[in-house]
Design a protein that fits this description.
Layout (H helix, E strand, L loop, with lengths): L3 H17 L20 E7 L4 E5 L5 H4 L4 E12 L4 E12 L7 H12 L4 H10 L6 H13 L8 E3 L3 E5 L1 H6 L6 E3 L2
Parallel strand pairs: 1-3
Antiparallel strand pairs: 2-6, 3-4, 4-7, 5-6
Helix pairs in contact: 3-4, 4-5
Length: 186
Amino acid sequence: MTDGKAVGTYLELKFRKFVGDRYEFEQGNAAKGIDFPGLGVDIKTTSITQPQSSCPFKSGRQKVYGLGYALLVFVYEKTDDPANKTARLNIQHVVFVEAGQTGDYQMTRGLREIVDRDGNEDDLIAFMADKNLPVDEIEMRRIAEDVLRNKPEQGYLTISNALQWRLQYQRVIDKAGDVPGVVRVK
C-alpha cells in the first residue's frame, strides 16, 4: 500500500524497463524533463478516481500549441488490502496523445472558433485575457498574431493554471479512439 506518486513512479519504471528490454532508446531524466526525449514522449500515470497529474510550466503558449511532446497516459484503479499491506493495480486505460493534441481543450476550441468566424487579433486577445492565459500583454499579442497565421490544433487536455500545469485526463479517456491524435492503446 502506498500513495499515488509512488504508484506512478513504480509503473513508469516498470514500463521503461519493459521497453528497454526490447528496444534501445535515449533514457530520460529530470533534467531532460520527459521519459523518452528521443521520441518526444512523456509517461503520465494517474488514478481513475482523479485522472490528473502535474507538469512543468514552461510558457502560457503551451495551452494554445500543446506541451511540445506527446503523452502516454496510464490510468489505473488501485485496491488496497490492509490486512496484507498490499495493493492490486488494474490498468483501466492506456491512451496516447499526440503532441499536437496536448493543448488545453477550451482554449484551443475558443481560438479556433474565433479564427473560423473571421475574428481578428483583438478578438483573440480579448478571449485569451478572459480565459486568464498566464502571459503578459506583449506575449498575448504575439500569440494572437501566431494563431492568425497558424491556427492551433484542437487540444484535448484540461490545463489548470498554477506554478506547475495541472493536467486533467478525463476528456482524453473519453475521446480516445474517436478523434485524431488521441489513440486508445488499451
